[in-house]
Automatic annotation (TrEMBL):
<dbReference type="InterPro" id="IPR017853">
    <property type="entry name" value="GH"/>
</dbReference>
<protein>
    <submittedName>
        <fullName>Glycoside hydrolase family 30 beta sandwich domain-containing protein</fullName>
    </submittedName>
</protein>
<feature type="domain" description="Glycosyl hydrolase family 30 beta sandwich">
    <location>
        <begin position="397"/>
        <end position="456"/>
    </location>
</feature>
<dbReference type="InterPro" id="IPR013780">
    <property type="entry name" value="Glyco_hydro_b"/>
</dbReference>
<keyword id="KW-0326">Glycosidase</keyword>
<keyword id="KW-0732">Signal</keyword>
<dbReference type="Pfam" id="PF02055">
    <property type="entry name" value="Glyco_hydro_30"/>
</dbReference>
<dbReference type="Pfam" id="PF17189">
    <property type="entry name" value="Glyco_hydro_30C"/>
</dbReference>
<dbReference type="InterPro" id="IPR033452">
    <property type="entry name" value="GH30_C"/>
</dbReference>
<dbReference type="InterPro" id="IPR033453">
    <property type="entry name" value="Glyco_hydro_30_TIM-barrel"/>
</dbReference>
<comment type="similarity">
    <text>Belongs to the glycosyl hydrolase 30 family.</text>
</comment>
<feature type="domain" description="Glycosyl hydrolase family 30 TIM-barrel">
    <location>
        <begin position="65"/>
        <end position="393"/>
    </location>
</feature>
<feature type="signal peptide">
    <location>
        <begin position="1"/>
        <end position="18"/>
    </location>
</feature>
<keyword id="KW-0378">Hydrolase</keyword>
<dbReference type="InterPro" id="IPR001139">
    <property type="entry name" value="Glyco_hydro_30"/>
</dbReference>
<dbReference type="GO" id="GO:0016787">
    <property type="term" value="F:hydrolase activity"/>
</dbReference>
């Protein structure tokens, strides 16, 4: 009898614990900034007439790799210039996975300089007229200054973080115009560029930094940035099929190859490459930004090639920022929209900038607001809170599960590897909205102010 009562008590206690709900809230007026709510919530049997979000963990979709940012060269420089104690404290806040920190789980970095590096460089820069088809002069020396030291500190905090590399330009001697801005990759240097990327992955590996994936080219249809490269779909497909895919295979490299890395208005770009069976065998999936098109267009790529993954890899916020507007748009379109449209990652753009949105190179973005501003103090900007609402709770390996959109309540739900359910809800309207969350026949009544975001965990 005693054993039976003990078992019943344990079952009741476990059930009660499973029904307890934590809430983290960000309000559009900043009255709460990713703040855990000090309220005791639990699911019950209450029946209401409120709009209801039904969460169904029996219907499962893509497995998430993570949420995060681009650690630009400029971001790494600013972070690395901090005092050791300040740097350690900041990196712990950003990347540690305990209760006090936001647990960024995925990073994008540039292969060579991006426009938010303090100068333009590649790992094989030569004098005008010189070439190096065997890539004998390859060097990661520029990254030894800031990026590699910062990445090593991050990996000590979170050894499992995944890293995506994206080039903004090949070495200029490989290009039709011989410049960092614009031009195309010369076909006669396809093999050399593939070897360059192999040496990059192996070089980072020697630094004990594993590159999980690369995209072929950042924004291949935007040759007006500095640095940049025009790479049409036929060119990207030929480069992968003839050079990069075979080079990775020969070198035994498992790093994923990801297509496109540009706006959602051209789903035909990755689809056309994936339609070629000889190319697609080397490709893991496609990456997107949202400076053009609709996030729903990503479904077209998934439906055309459902065995290939999707990634959301970049979106910037313009300085000085509009907290309420940025919070609503980015949570709706990226955190919720990207995830609901099959993306395994959702990444905001630059992790850090100074109060004047520096550093950047000549021709680089002058208005890109970092997730944090590093000046006399550390300021947390909209992207910090946007990503935190997902990164802290929907850990790598979480699976998106079914939930319905009702009224103005955009939302997305996940089941975590530890068995918890995570529901992110945005009230898109300007007025408070009462609603009910329903799961497994139990209900929870809630209300969100206009423009507010809440993450529910149970």
């Amino acid at each position: 009898m005693k054993n039976t009562l003990t078992l019943i008590f344990c079952l009741v206690a476990a059930l009660a614990k499973a029904q307890q709900v934590d809430v983290w809230l960000t309000n559009a007026d900043k009255s709460a900034l990713f703040q855990k709510q000090n309220v005791a919530l639990s699911f019950g049997n209450e029946k209401t007439d409120e709009p209801t979000i039904f969460v169904d963990d029996t219907k499962r979709f893509q497995r998430m790799d993570g949420f995060g940012f681009t650690l630009t060269g400029g971001s790494a420089t600013l972070i690395n210039q901090l005092k050791d104690s300040e740097k350690a404290e900041l990196l712990k806040e950003l990347f540690a996975t305990d209760q006090q920190n936001i647990g960024i789980s995925y990073l994008r970095i540039s292969i060579g300089a991006s426009d938010l590096s303090d100068h333009v460089f590649t790992y094989n820069d030569l004098a005008k007229g010189e070439t190096d088809p065997n890539i004998k002069k390859f060097s990661l020396a520029e990254e030894q200054k800031d990026l590699i030291p910062v990445l090593k500190q991050i990996l000590k905090i979170n050894p499992n973080i995944k890293i995506l590399g994206s080039p903004w330009t090949p070495p200029t001697w490989m290009k039709t115009n011989g410049e960092s801005k614009g031009g195309s990759l010369k076909p006669e240097f396809y093999q050399a560029y593939a070897l360059y990327l192999v040496k990059y992955i192996l070089g980072m590996q020697k630094e004990e930094i594993r590159i999980d994936a690369i995209t072929i080219q950042n924004e291949p249809l935007h040759p007006g940035n500095n640095p940049s490269l025009l790479m049409l779909p036929s060119e990207q497909g030929a480069f992968i099929k003839k050079s990069l895919g075979p080079a990775f295979k020969t070198a035994g490299i498992k790093t994923k190859i990801i297509l496109y890395d540009h706006n959602a208005d051209r789903p035909d770009y990755p689809i056309s490459i994936l339609n070629d069976p000889e190319t697609r065998k080397y490709v893991d999936g496609s990456a997107f930004h949202l400076y053009g098109g609709s996030i729903e267009a990503l479904k077209d790529v998934h439906e055309a090639h459902p065995d290939k993954n999707l990634y959301f890899t970049e979106q910037w916020i313009g300085a000085p920022g509009n907290f309420a507007g940025d919070l609503k748009w980015h949570v709706k379109n990226l955190i919720i929209g990207g995830s609901r449209n099959w993306c395994k990652t959702v990444l905001e753009w630059n992790l850090a900038a100074d109060p004047k949105q520096n550093p950047h190179n000549d021709g680089g973005c002058t208005e890109c607001l970092g997730a944090i501003t590093i000046g006399n103090s550390i300021v947390r900007n909209p992207a910090y809170y946007i990503v935190a609402h997902a990164s802290k709770f929907a850990r790598p390996g979480s699976v998106r599960i079914a939930s319905n959109i009702t009224m103005s309540l955009a939302n997305v739900a996940f089941k975590t590897p530890s068995g918890k359910t995570v529901l992110i809800v945005l009230n898109e309207s300007d007025k408070p909205q009462a609603f009910t969350i329903s799961t497994k026949g139990k209900t929870l009544s809630q209300s969100l102010d206009g423009g507010s975001v809440a993450t529910y965990i149970w």
